[in-house]
């Protein structure tokens, strides 16, 4: 199994956490997003969206998009499960995941930030303010949902770490990347800290990956 990866990629962070939870350790192939390696024709042939992660399983199955990759891993390697057993639970977990994957993260990826600067003349501070605004909007949604819902437990859904937690932890890392904080979101903070106490989550963190700076 191979994964196209880069230390700073939040989407790849999600998949790294899921892989660690499953006890899988694929070969990593670096795509240097800061150098624009995702835009090269060789990579665009692998993922026309020019984005990571991409996972290639041993039989050649090639997958794009962090959420389907994680669901694929969960179906193919079911133990331990990342999703609840019941349909309503799975829908809730997917809805929590989509706060990051569909609603917040797509607005802050490198291609969007560089477009804001190059086409609309946004300064680095303005680009950061944009990114933090959308990450904070997701953070607020997580807090309100998790705090009010009886299905929330030690983790986002009950007392077992799963797919929603992986998305929440990547979201919290993204907030930090854009100089924000989760300190005013107590339920989020409690769950993120509990997740990061697990080495399978902590070791997947962007700042623990090859090529990462020691701090942001
Ligand atoms: N929805 C995708 C997002 C993929 C994505 O945009 N990945 C970022 C890194 S986190 C990327 O490779 N961006 C390249 C760019 O924006 O140029 C997923 O969840 O996998």
Explain what the structure shows:
By secondary structure, the protein is an alpha+beta fold. The chain has 2 domains: 2-80, Glutaredoxin, CATH 3.40.30.10; 87-206, Glutathione S-transferase Yfyf (Class Pi), Chain A, domain 2 (Up-down Bundle). It is built from 9 helices and 4 strands, in the order βαβαββααααααα. α6 packs antiparallel against α7. It starts with a strand and ends in a 14-residue tail after the last helix. Bound molecules: glutathione (GSH). Residues 9-11, 33, 38, 50-53, 65-67, 101, 106, 109-111 line the site of glutathione.
Portion of residues in beta strands equals 5-15%
Please report the total strand number as a whole number: 4
Helix content: 40-55%
Count of helical stretches: 9
Summarize the helix and strand pattern as letters: EHEHEEHHHHHHH
CATH topology tier name of the largest domain? Glutathione S-transferase Yfyf (Class Pi), Chain A, domain 2
List the main descriptive attributes of the protein structure presented here:
216 residues, alpha+beta, Glutaredoxin, Glutathione S-transferase Yfyf (Class Pi), Chain A, domain 2, four-stranded mixed β-sheet, 9 helices, 52% helix, globular
What's a quick, concise take on this entry?
This protein has 2 domains: 2-80, Glutaredoxin; 87-206, Glutathione S-transferase Yfyf (Class Pi), Chain A, domain 2 (Up-down Bundle), CATH 1.20.1050. It has 9 helices and 4 strands; from the N terminus they run E-H-E-H-E-E-H-H-H-H-H-H-H. The protein has helices at residues 10-21, 41-46, 66-76, 87-104, 110-120, 124-148, 163-177, 186-196, 199-202; strands at residues 2-5, 27-30, 54-56, 62-64.
